[in-house]
Design a protein that fits this description.
Blueprint: E1 3-8, H1 14-24, E2 31-38, E3 41-48, H2 51-60, E4 67-73, E5 88-90, E6 94-102, H3 105-114, H4 125-137, H5 142-152, E7 155-163, E8 170-175, E9 180-183, E10 188-191, E11 203-206, E12 212-215, E13 220-223, E14 229-230, E15 235-236, H6 252-258, H7 260-268, E16 272-273, E17 276-277, H8 284-291, E18 295-300, H9 302-319, E19 323-327, H10 328-331, E20 342-348, H11 354-363, E21 370-375, H12 381-385, E22 388-391, H13 404-423, H14 428-439, H15 441-449, H16 452-462, E23 467-472, H17 477-491, E24 494-499, E25 516-521, H18 527-539, E26 543-549, E27 562-566, H19 574-593
Parallel strand pairs: 18-19, 18-20, 20-21, 21-22, 23-24, 23-25, 25-26, 26-27
Antiparallel strand pairs: 1-4, 1-10, 2-3, 2-4, 5-6, 6-7, 7-8, 8-12, 9-10, 9-11, 11-15, 12-13, 13-14, 16-17
This protein binds fructose -6-phosphate.
């Protein structure tokens, strides 16, 4: 959360920073700001609200400079006001931008106040900038003072600091929040994510935990957590600017929903070989470890947790390996029992989610056979810290509500299930059938996308309501949960997902003619049970919207007002397909409500605070 861009160059850096921040707004959009060294002072411009407000201010009051730092904020300490917006400065001599939380800021703040420092904001960040100033007043150089102050911080952070006494030099550091160094010709940069810099360079170093980097236009030096100078691998990262554009769609979310057939094709293409999952996906060495696996613990947050829930059904049904799935922030703090020969598996789009990383680090101390990750961002912290990372190839997901990331996570977990079947020698004929089904996914998702107009019609009904219930059973219960999460996060309509069988144990009390009930009704062994649950809703006058498989003999068309039919392929992959119309439903409801679809209130992608 929060995005940082900093640059030192022989040209004006303001556009570099603002364009970079534009691509980082997914990390937070409560306020934005920039500090540049201009003449003999630091000029700071900042605004509450989105980056467009800052841009408007800069159009009226242009600034320029050869080095600067910028920030887009997701508020932790202090309301999203312009006073709390970053950068924060000390005596107009030093300015800082920060992502994360400084846990020991309170005592430091008190010490600084006692020394006469006046705080202008409620943020933890302002403590750091005064601390550096205080150390400089004691005679330390900019670098010495910054290193000393950074080493004193507890918590998770990425920071970038600029100082008037050394214009052109920027000091940046990471511990617990991502930061990447970008190298250009006669210019160097740091940012929270490579995508902020792809218009400037394709040469990057991913900084490691505890690293501090000092950049000037001509040079950079990296220090590790012990303040020893180190070199880090330079990587070439090619990313097309199209991947970051809306490509003619009204919103990133709509574009990302429509990218799902390609994203799934990219994710499975080279990993299916004939009737099996290739050894490139899981190498023979990895398979040796996986053969010993007797338990699986899947840990994730939010939408990624729903992917884990579906995977649990698959793994238990097809491999017989007991599988637990748990929310990362709960798992980490309950002293979980780890049976012998357990595999730990985290699912995360960003690979930077603080709760999931904390769970992984905890798991590394508790005797798992191995730690696996399913992740969409190569070189993310989760990728680097897990023993094995199975990448999803969704491409950058910019809409805050996750869509194509989930679909590709499901595709990878389907591949993983099939490979575990092979490794544990389960039913080769069935395995072949399931591989065949998985191959059809891109085409089947394309067909589901065609329902968009029909779903828009339903959205026109649901938009009038304040609540909604989503029902599913078995493999499709997590899809009901995901449908509810998506609707609430982007349309702000209160929505709950329930296992349909649980309805009569409480939530049925909510059902009346003003309660839309959306049921995911696949053609599987639970169809008849689900139909009974639908009847329970119908009998209480609930407004039913039922998504059914075209192959099923559901008999619901005469009994329910809204039946939406789709080809869900087979029961193995049908959760992947049924999720698509629910994404479209949330999208259309949100558009009709006029909410900010891509950047819903109070949220941010990449949740790097616990
Ligand atoms: C919802 C959503 C979130 C994320 C969650 C975990 O649309 O995107 O619930 O799924 O914050 O994020 P990752 O997958 O990056 O660990």
């Amino acid at each position: 959360m929060c995005g940082i861009v900093a640059a030192s160059a022989k040209r004006n850096v303001v556009d570099i920073i603002i364009n970079g921040l534009q691509t980082l707004e997914y990390r937070g959009y409560d306020s934005a700001g920039i500090a540049v060294i201009e003449g003999d002072g630091i000029t700071i411009k900042k605004q509450a609200g989105k980056l467009t407000k800052l841009k408007a201010q800069l159009a009226d009051e242009p600034v320029s400079g050869h080095s600067g730092i910028g920030h887009t904020r997701w508020a932790t300490h202090g309301e999203p006001t312009s006073a709390n917006a970053h950068p924060h400065d000390s005596n107009n001599a030093i300015a800082v931008v920060h992502n994360g939380i400084i846990e020991n800021y309170a005592p430091l703040r008190e010490q600084l106040i006692a020394k006469g420092y006046q705080f202008k904001s409620e943020t933890d960040t302002e403590t750091l900038v005064h601390l550096i100033h205080d150390y400089q007043s004691d005679g330390l150089s900019f670098a010495q003072a910054s290193h000393k102050a950074i080493r004193l911080l507890d918590g998770a952070y990425a920071v970038a600091i600029t100082c008037m006494s050394e214009p052109g030099r920027i000091i940046a550091a990471r511990k617990g929040s991502p930061l990447v160094l970008g190298m250009g010709e006669g210019e160097n940069f740091v940012a929270s994510d490579v995508q902020a810099l792809i218009n400037e360079t394709d040469q990057f170093c991913y900084l490691e935990e505890g690293d501090i980097v000092e950049i000037t236009a001509d040079d950079y030096v990296i220090y590790d957590g012990n303040d020893q100078q180190v070199s880090r691998e330079i990587q070439t990262v090619k990313m097309s600017a199209d991947a970051l554009s809306k490509d003619g769609y009204a919103h990133y979310m709509l574009k990302e929903i429509h990218e799902q057939p390609t994203a799934v094709a990219n994710t499975i293409a080279d990993r299916l070989l004939g009737g099996r999952v290739s050894d490139e996906f899981i190498t023979p060495e990895m398979a040796q470890t996986l053969q010993q696996v007797e338990h699986i613990h899947i840990i994730a947050c939010g939408t990624s947790y729903h992917a884990g829930m579906v995977a649990r059904y698959w793994l238990e049904a097809f491999t017989g390996i007991p599988t637990q799935v748990e929310i990362a922030s709960e798992y980490r703090y309950r002293n979980p029992v780890v049976p012998k020969n357990s595999l730990f598996l985290t699912i995360s789009q960003s690979g930077e989610t603080a709760d999931s990383l904390a769970a992984l680090r905890y798991a590394q101390t508790t005797g798992y056979l191995s730690t696996y990750a399913v992740c969409n961002v190569a070189n993310s912290t989760l990728d680097r810290e897990s023993d094995v990372c199975l990448l999803t190839y969704a491409g950058p997901e910019i809409g805050v509500a996750s869509t194509k990331a989930l679909t590709t996570q499901l595709a990878v977990m389907a591949l993983f299930t099939l490979k575990m079947m092979e490794i544990h020698d389960k039913d080769p004929a069935k395995r072949k059938r399931l591989v065949k089904q998985l191959r059809t996914m891109p085409g089947i998702i394309n067909q589901a996308l065609v329902l968009s107009d029909q779903i828009k019609g339903i959205a026109e009904q649901i938009v009038k309501r304040d609540n909604a219930l989503f029902l599913g059973r078995g493999l499709h219960y997590p899809i009901a949960l995901e449908g509810a999460l998506k609707l609430k996060e982007i349309s702000y309509i209160h929505a709950e997902g329930y296992p349909a069988g649980e309805l009569k144990h409480g939530p049925l009390a909510l059902v009346d003619e003003k309660m839309p009930v959306i049921a995911v009704c696949p053609n599987d062994e639970l169809l008849e049970k689900l139909k009974s649950n639908i009847e329970e809703v119908r009998a209480r006058g609930g407004e039913l919207y039922v998504f059914v498989d075209h192959k099923s003999d559901h008999g619901l068309s005469d009994r329910v007002n809204h039946v939406i039919t789709l080809d869900a392929s087979g029961s193995f992959t049908s959760p992947i397909v049924f999720n698509v119309p629910l994404q479209l439903l949330s999208y259309h409801v949100a558009v009709l409500r006029g909410t900010d679809v891509d950047q819903p209130r109070n949220l941010a992608k990449s949740v790097t605070v616990e």
